[in-house]
Amino acid sequence: MNSILAIITARGGSKRIPRKNIKDFCGKPIIAYPINLALESKIFHNVIVSTDDLEIKKISENYGAEVPFLRSAKTSDDFATTSDVLVEVLNTYENQLGKKFDFACCIYPTSPLLKQEYLVKALDLLKSKDADSVFPIIRYSSPIQRALIENPMGFIEMIQPENMQVRSQDLQPAFFDAGQFYFFNVKSFLLKRKMWTERSVGLEISDLEAQDIDNESDWKIAELKYKLLFST
């Protein structure tokens, strides 16, 4: 039986939206949503929060997550990557707690629109495809092959003018990272230290099911989407 870990990454510092990871979102701290989702999915042996912040630790534990250790100063500054945080968590689990995992899922704390079914599908894809990682992607609504730029003279031109007359349905669809979670093979990740590689699989979701939250306007849009998706 595979051992599977959920890691919700939530450091205390947030410059654009103060205390972003525990700010109230439709009635409860935003971090409560991924915690509850991971616990209710029943696919994880441990659901932990990686944080350097004692208030985040307390709130996370109140909602059922584990915080077995605090994040180091090195992985709590503005220069630490998500991969740095995950490596620290996995190594600390092995070296201090004597526990190894086969698969892990990094879930971002500001993912209130995430659906449980996608975590389950991602794990299934990870195993069936023997992939390094699986993460949600969103299709660009317009063909990126017709992207425009402003030239030095201030006029608009196409990056790929050869696609001007090509039908939209004949252009290859393009996608972007939804920024919600990464489900990954632990052994491959520790070897490559990358969230996605040449052996990563995308799980397509709609643009209604995700929202980057970088400012207050994004926050309001995310709340509107949440109400549309989950209101009864």
UniProtKB/TrEMBL annotation:
First and last residue of the signal peptide: none
Gene3D superfamilies per record: Spore Coat Polysaccharide Biosynthesis Protein SpsA, Chain A
Superkingdom as given in the UniProt entry: Bacteria
EC nos: 2.7.7.81
Any one GO MF annotation of this record: N-acylneuraminate cytidylyltransferase activity
Entry keywords, A to Z: Nucleotidyltransferase, Transferase
Name this polypeptide is given: Pseudaminic acid cytidylyltransferase
